[in-house]
Amino acid sequence: MSMEIELGRGKRARRAYTFDDIAVVPSRRTRNSSDVSTTWSIDAFTFDTPIIGAPMDSVVSPKTAIALGRMGALGVLDLEGLWTRYEDPEPLLAEIASLPAVSATRRMQALYAQPIRPELITQRIAEIREAGVVVAGALSPQLTQEHYETVVKAGVDLFVIRGTTVSAEHVSSAAEPLNLKQFIYDLDVPVIVGGAGTYRAALHLMRTGAAGVLVGFGGGAASTTRASLGIHTPMATAVADVAGARRDYMDESGGRYVHVIADGSIGTSGDIVKAIAMGADAVMLGVALARATDAPGLGYHWGAEAHHPSLPRGRRVAVEQVATMEEVLYGPAQVADGTTNLVGALRKSMATTGYSDIKEFQRVDVVVTPYE
């Protein structure tokens, strides 16, 4: 049942909830956290934890992708970032971290105006592959047609098509739009695509043959989409809606399971818990990993929207560096604010509420409790 609110005589709106508006509640059973599994599998790949490093230059470099892979997570490299535009982007990452706020956007626009070099895409993917971890790379829908052959030939394991919003029915008079259904059907590697924020949009993406759908739009810490475009996706409701689309698509397709990946508004371990409680199979983290002392952003965080050449919808934000990447994921935590030992907190919450794995935990009871 949908609860609608009358905003005025000519407009009604559906009530939606953020992660801050909800909480999970214990059931009649508890269990030891050592008996809890956080394993997540997609296609032929299995990970110790359902955590994905977002394809942002402040979060994932080839080095961090390798480190995350060795820690049982997945790092997705932005194949439109500095690592595929420059031979050595580390001085540029340091420059971005040192920029005064007033000039950061303009300088980033200039740095990201450098053309993408296909040979660097190949080189970065090869570097990650040589380390023996799962290789994942991301392109925007606008540049997928231009570079996907290079990406696949280089040996990517998981291909991510990620934008602020991605539609299976994009209309364009300027250029032939990407036909996701045909593209994914012809591709030899599993595809994760998004963002989507509604049941209908997600269902259409699932029908393209995607292995996973990213849920989120403009909810990240570095995003100003709500201020610039007036668009926002309350994530608790969005994840639940897309999980509902997954259920209905399973019936429609005869049992094909599409993974739901929460991508946005996840800054603490509690947010990870709530995302999975609402139906997510995994979470894609930006700011939560950018806080690591060994993250490539050097204490700053930004996404692709922050350096859009004509309409920036994000910004470079300072983040508190709290611990190493390993400590962010696995602890030990030195503070009680949910920024470190993310996996340990997830395991503890699952154990406290009596669930043994991710799929079971999606059935946990949830209450609405407005954030104070």
CATH secondary-structure class: Alpha Beta
Q: Give me the count of strands.
A: 16
Helix content: 25-40%
Basic shape: globular
Total number of domains: 1
Largest sheet: 8 strands, parallel, barrel
Mean pLDDT: 92
Estimated share of beta-strand residues: 15-25%
Oligomeric nature of the chains: single chain
Structural class designation: alpha/beta
Helix/strand order, N-terminal first: EEEEEEHEHHHEHEHEHEHHEHEHEEHHHE
* Strand neighbour order, sheet with most strands: 6-7-8-9-10-11-12-13
Fold-level CATH name: TIM Barrel
Rg result: 20 Å
Q: What is the CATH architecture descriptor?
A: Alpha-Beta Barrel
CATH homologous superfamily classification:
Aldolase class I
